[in-house]
Amino acid sequence: MTPMEQRRSPRHQIEAPAIMRLDGRSGPLLVTLLDVSATGLRVSAPSALPSGAKVTIKCNGVEVKGEIRYSREIDGPKYHIGVLVDTATEEGELDLVALLGPALVPPAQRLQRRSA
Predict the structure, then answer these.
(1) Which whole number is the average pLDDT over 7-21?
(2) DSSP symbol at 11
(3) Is the pTM of this model over 0.85?
């Protein structure tokens, strides 16, 4: 069974700018949100980040908190960062896919909508 087949929830491809803040570090980090699932997300960042670090990510007016699970170098100074999102909130379970729904439209479709 491949790692993708082992996933508990499907990933939804996305390409949206986001702001990531690491707890205990000043200043934001500009990242690109690459995909999102019910329990986490993956971003592209300009530098590696430590596993276990607590982060806050803001995208399209939605803010979520989570923990970095991995940081993998992809291309030169580009890294893919996996974040396990804290899904429990005071209001109940967080539906990450529903929260980021408008941003889940693929980039090509967003361009088509704008030109229509």
Answers:
(1) 82
(2) -
(3) no
